[in-house]
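Lab notebook, design round three. We kept the backbone fixed and only want residue identities now. Task for the bench partner: fill in a sequence for the structure below.
Input structure tokens:
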């Protein structure tokens, strides 16, 4: 992958290794198909190390069944970033640990892409802004609704102008709400989930979708209370219900109980936003999820997005022993 973008690398004499932390995400949020996404406190962490310290290109420190060679999405994204900006690809090894379940609708692919680009930016000392990271990640992933919150944190709304310019707007999610992610054992690839989508939808359906999107966005930012009857989607959830019957059944029961719930990304996970003060709602959601065979992850919003720290000092505190440093997760 190459580009006519000018090289903006600042070449250092010695390579400075970094650790990058990227959050999981939940996209669509109901009626915001391919447009809305939020970052979650569940992370992928990648650290660059001297190449001779790892046997293969990647050393995976958990039980994730991913490639450890140069076809790994993190490494491919790192290489793509370097090639895009015309800088040499650093010959490093990567140590990786992820808490983001694969192919569950929680942005595992987007996190890998953002991690690779962010690490390339640090290793090559590229002076590129977060917006450029989002744009390149969108080129690699295909859609901005997962990659944008992975980079920026919080809740991000994405849209394109008539001339194709990507417009991003970020806000903190409502602090009085807490996200619960209901995760099944079964996986579902995004490509498979997209294959069942209809090619066309009626104008009336699109109009209703737009009306719901406004309600959902305002509810998740705390402008007004959420309405469970408006949390559903017309563009992707009905089509995917046929290939994800467990998720569809769980969504229906949660909404009937008054919960603001949506199919997370392409599924099959389901996301629920509950009031922090309503412990009964959280307990009930756990019970309903378990009855459907879903694990319930009680998470929180990630407000910082992709974070990087050099080996010789934390990017947040400037010290070697910051308790929030992503190296603590490896």
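Proposed sequence:
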């Amino acid at each position: 992958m190459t580009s006519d973008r000018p090289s903006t690398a600042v070449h250092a004499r010695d390579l400075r290794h970094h650790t990058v932390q990227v959050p999981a995400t939940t996209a669509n949020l109901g009626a915001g198909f391919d447009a809305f996404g939020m970052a979650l406190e569940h992370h992928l962490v990648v650290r660059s190390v001297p190449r001779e310290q790892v046997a293969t290109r990647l050393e995976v420190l958990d039980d994730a069944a991913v490639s450890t060679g140069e076809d790994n999405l993190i490494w491919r994204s790192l290489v793509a970033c370097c090639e895009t900006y015309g800088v040499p690809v650093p010959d490093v090894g990567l140590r990786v640990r992820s808490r983001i379940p694969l192919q569950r609708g929680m942005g595992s692919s987007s996190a890998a892409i953002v991690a690779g680009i962010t690490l390339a930016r640090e290793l090559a000392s590229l002076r590129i802004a977060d917006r450029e990271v989002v744009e390149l990640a969108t080129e690699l992933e295909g859609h901005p609704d997962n990659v944008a919150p992975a980079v920026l944190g919080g809740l991000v709304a994405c849209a394109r102008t008539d001339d194709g310019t990507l417009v991003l707007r970020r806000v903190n999610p409502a602090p009085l709400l807490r996200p619960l992610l209901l995760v099944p054992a079964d996986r579902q690839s995004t490509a498979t989930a997209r294959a069942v989508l209809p090619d066309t939808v009626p104008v009336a359906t699109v109009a209703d979708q737009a009306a719901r999107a406004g309600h959902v966005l305002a509810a998740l930012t705390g402008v007004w209370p959420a309405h469970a009857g408006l949390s559903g989607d017309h563009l992707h959830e009905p089509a995917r219900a046929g290939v994800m019957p467990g998720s569809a059944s769980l969504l229906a029961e949660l909404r009937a109980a008054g919960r603001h719930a949506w199919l997370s990304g392409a599924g099959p996970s389901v996301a629920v936003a509950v009031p922090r003060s309503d412990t009964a709602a959280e307990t009930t959601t756990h019970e309903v999820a378990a009855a459907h065979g879903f694990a319930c992850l009680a998470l929180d919003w990630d407000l910082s997005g992709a974070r990087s720290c050099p080996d010789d000092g934390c990017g947040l505190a400037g010290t070697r022993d910051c308790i929030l440093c992503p190296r603590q997760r490896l």
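Keep this in mind before ordering anything: Confidence is low (pLDDT under 50) at residues 1-13.
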